[in-house]
Amino acid sequence: MTGLVIEATNVLKYLGSGAGRVAAVRGISLSLTGGQLVLLMGPSGSGKTTLLSMLGCMLTPTSGTVRILGQATAGLLPERLADLRRRHVGFIFQNYHLFPTLTAAENVRLALEMSGEHPWRAHAKAAKALETVGLAHKVRGFPRELSSGEQQRVAIARAIVANPAVVLADEPTAALDSANGHAIMTLLAKIAKDPSRAVLIVTHDPRVLPFADRVVNIEDGRLVDKSPQAKPE
Amino acid sequence: MELGRLTPIIFTLASRNLFHDRIRLVGTLVGIVFSVVLFTVQLGLFLGFERMITTMIDHASADLWIAPADTKGFEATALLEGRERFRALAVPGVADVTPVVIGFTFWRKPNGKSQTPVFLIGTTPGGLQPWNLIEGNLSDLSTPQAVAVDRSYFDRLGVAEIGDYGEIGDKKARVAAVTKGIRSFTTTPYVFMPLDRARAYLGLPPASATYFLVRIAPGASVNEVRQRLQATLPNLEVITSDEFRRRSRSYWLFGTGAGAALFGSALLGIAVGTVIVAQTLYSSTKDHLSEFATLRAMGSSRRYLYLTILWQALLTAIIGFAIAAAASLGLARLSAESALPILMTPGLIVGLFVLTVAMSIVSAISAIVVVTRVDPVTVLAR
Fold first, then answer.
1. pTM of the model
2. Buried/exposed code over B73-99 (b: 16+ C-beta within 10 A; e: otherwise)
3. Cα–Cα 20 to 30 A to A205, which of A177, A197, B91, B236?
4. 3-state secondary structure string, B182-231?
5. How high is the ipTM of this complex?
6. What are the pLDDT digits (tens) for B8-22?
7. Could B9 and A79 be called an inter-chain contact, meaning their C-beta atoms sit closer than 8 Å?
8. Cross-chain Cβ contact B379/A91 below 8 Å
């Protein structure tokens, strides 16, 4: 069953203060439903990262509302926002941000044990998640022993292992060659098939367009209708 | 089953981060070991000093001490006339009153050319007699000119074995018994002998004494007997052994500043160790800041971040303590035969462990302040 996972309504976000204060996001409304892979595209400085930060409960809007599974983030303290991220959001970062001193399995376990999962159960789930991303044979590999594509797969396994309602990916193919980028997008598209999970990918990379169920363009902090696939919010 | 699967990943992360930079780890451990050893040695010296101060009181068979007024420690040399003994014996509840004479004088070595200060202790059987005898026996002291000395002072006294002679004042003294481990914190050798001989060597009147050791009758109350004795001898002090110990420690450790100096050095050691560990944890945390930001972005609570740092601090403390404790025990063993041995008690070792852990946890505060400010959004910007 597909449902509304994240809903942003008329979101405005100012960054900085005094003379340096800028409106990074200007009245954006956007909803993400389960079973969809949505691309958020736009030039540098268009507000993509700020919007992603608000959808991922890292920032709260200056005005407007962001709801994740119905829970509004406005006014929440940092610890409560962290709790929402831990329970509902899986992040995939451009440079993977794996822990270099931990093995692939341990990197994935970390996401579970932060939530209080028992180490033994966490290990079993991590192994399964790595199997899902095709890295069953690399559970003991340290990041330095893995290729870029494999590192990004570990990051994907880490993002999905706790079964979050939304997966947010920040330029997941930017550091990869075409073949690896294609493989990663195939994997993310497969993950997005889960009707209880939404996947939002921030990207500059036009090669990923074929994988999108929907494309959202952003410029100067506002959503714009630029491509044939895009559906204005 | 692999042990790693049962170990919480937070411990793995903290320990691997710690061991990842081995040069920094070695620097930290050197700092901790230096700090803990310095602290241990100072405290061990303090404990050794404390025990030596009260060693005579500990080995005297007395329930109560009759001492001259305002006696600050065992080494005080004011005199009692001697009549007090009979008045004390008349007090109900008193079983026995044994005189003890002490005093500083000089020991002339057998070569007759040099002399060294000595501390004489004279008493009758049942008073304050030498213990830990390794050669000769107590009855040998009843022979003419016989004295007992500690083996550790042989060189100082210019003697090498039983039967060797020295002179106290202008009178001969013969080593008739040898003890082991009876050393003075003043480094002045103790020389034990019968009461009358001590009076003669020190030139004291026949009935005089420095202390009277009181043993109370079975079933009598120490406090009640003490009150009666104090009422009978209002110009003297009647004190329990515990009180005498406290008084001696207080005088020598704090009245002279010796204890404060030892404590001061110990605290300096702790301060140095805390700063070194704090510096290491701080720089380690700064180096791994992007990892902490990633943890935060993934939804880690601050508590989880703090635990990671605290576990690192704890691990550092455990390793540092193990090395420092081994080094300190070695030093204590080496100092066992010295004039002022370092005393390592089980209580001190446990206390040092607690202290090392506390020091490391306090050191973690600066690192914790750093991660408290970490912004998860920075992960997206990289």
1. 0.73
2. bbbbeeebeeebbeebeebebbebbbb
3. A197
4. CCCCCCCCEEEEEHHHHHHHHCCCCCCECEEEEEECCCCCHHHHHHHHHH
5. 0.91
6. 999 999 899 888 888
7. no
8. yes
